[in-house]
Amino acid sequence: MSTDELLNRHRAVMPNWINPLYADPIELVSGSGCRVTDAAGRTYLDFFGGVLTTMIGYDIPEVSDAVRRQLDKGIAHSSTLYLIRKQVELAEKIAKVSGIANPKVFLANSGTEANDTALLLATQYRRSNQILAVRNSYHGRSFAALAVTGQRSWSATSLSPVNVSYLHSGDRLRGVFAGLSDAEYIARSVADLREVLATTTAGDVACLIAEPIQGVGGFVAPPDGYFKAVKEVLDEHGILWISDEVQTGWGRTGEHFWGYQAHDAVPDMLTFAKGIGNGFTLGGVVARGEIMDCLNAVSFNTFGGNPISASAGQAVLDYVLSHDLQSNAARVGEVLHGGVRGLNCPIVAEVRGKGLMLAFELVRPGTLDPAPELALRVLEETKANGLLVGKGGLYGNVIRMGPPLTLTEAEAKEGLDILAAALAAAHRQAVAA
After folding, report:
1. Helix or strand or coil: residue 32?
2. Nearest 5 degrees, angle CA 101-CA 237-CA 227?
3. SS3 176
4. Distance, CA of 36 to CA of 29 (rounded, Å)
5. What is the pLDDT of residue 1?
6. Does this entry carry the keyword Transferase (predicted)?
7. What 3-state class would DSSP assign to 127?
8. What is the mean predicted confidence (pLDDT) over 404-410?
9. Pairing between strand 163-167 and 103-108?
């Protein structure tokens, strides 16, 4: 069957709001390390990892073997009606590395479900449905997760189970905080937080949910130390802080194991997903014990933390730690960041991110006008030359990259050469327009 035939079948039975990338979408049929191969036999260096999900690369024997051992036992599922050894072992390991005091772990299937659970816990613990969220954020596609997502393009409904007040994002390229120093930004943000609490809430706010680095938002982030200053205000009011680590966790930023650790403050809850499963469905919440235990109704998760996903998760976490992939993210990430900045491309307004979490924003030459058409050109050019990247940002003009944490310096330089050629082509398009 041709790719065109598969695309026609996709369009016939899948929702029209699920759109594959590229003018001519591709089907990935195999992978190894940091490379994937499509149905036509074309191989690509993957700098997006299924949206930062294939965190340690493709076809990793340690993960495959762990899953196969569990499959060979004949138990793929039992539910939490019964004890699940792999689930308990994984929860213990995650609790140990979480940095949260007296932690308990709830395992789910995705980041959306993890964030939804964290919101449930916060609103129950605080007996309030008032939430602080951040503009330009993304937290998932469930009813509650969409309600705290601060991007119009992802907000499928105005209906909401929570009452949300939005804080400013870390964007200093445009907007009211443009051009501020780190110290000025933090001071102005804290003043804004106090004003929001005094004017748009009834005072008994449940929590702040925020990404240390905004994923879908184009890797926009506040300066280090921001959340420490914010948490001091939250603590005055008893407001909980949820750190959405779905994209920033497990050492991806290079500097730290969790994104929140750049701010010298510890959240009350953190949520995780994506990379910990390396393609297997796995997410969850870590919370202080008294918060996790606050539900006064029976609850569980049919598939969350099942023996297969938990086996994969353990193998992934063990691999990350034993191979010190955080250090690799720092070292190879420096090559990528330095390489993109060194291009000095006129249509690149800003390079953002940390470690192996890199983005750059594309604008029309000589302006800060967003150029989503140039982002599409870069996507097509990189694909044509054997590199897969992603896009995002509020205006759809940001190229996002989150390659596997196993990426080598040689692969980083190979990708940079392709990026340089793609940006040159996009620049020529911009000049000709």
Report:
1. strand
2. 60
3. coil
4. 8
5. 67
6. yes
7. coil
8. 98
9. unpaired
Identify whether the C-beta of residue 77 lies closer than 8 Å to the C-beta of residue 306: yes
Residue of 345, 327, 323, 320 lying closest to 416 (CA atoms): 345
CA distance 403 to 132: 31
**Rounded distance between C-alpha atoms, residue 406 and residue 401, angstroms:** 14
- In angstroms, rounded to a whole number, what is the distance separating the alpha carbons of residues 194 and 358? 32
What is the side-by-side strand order in the sheet with 269-272? 103-108, 283-288, 269-272, 240-244, 207-210, 130-134, 163-167
Nearest to 242 by CA among 206, 215, 207: 207
Q: Do 356 and 405 meet the contact criterion of CB atoms below 8 Å apart?
A: yes
**In contact, 423 and 431? CB cutoff 8 Å:** no
Of the candidates 241, 138, 245, 143, the one whose C-alpha atom is nearest the C-alpha of residue 193 is 241
Torsion of CA 118, 84, 326, 408, to 10 degrees: -120
Residue 246: partners with Cβ closer than 8 Å, 6 or more residues away: 111, 114, 115, 211, 215, 271, 272, 273, 274, 283
Beta bridge partners of 352: 359
List residues bridging with 32 in a β-sheet: 35
Within 323-408, where are the H helices?
Answer: 325-342, 372-384
224: pLDDT strictly greater than 90: yes
List, edge to edge, every strand of the sheet that includes 398-401.
348-354, 357-362, 398-401, 390-392
Q: How many residues does the chain have?
A: 433
Longest alpha-carbon distance in the chain: 65
| Centroid of chain to Cα 172 | 20
Distance CA 337, CA 351 (A): 8
pLDDT in tens, 234-265: 999 999 999 999 999 999 999 999 999 999 99
- pTM, 2 dp: 0.96
Q: Which residues pair with 298 in a beta bridge?
A: none
Q: What does the block give as tokens for 275?
A: 């990379």
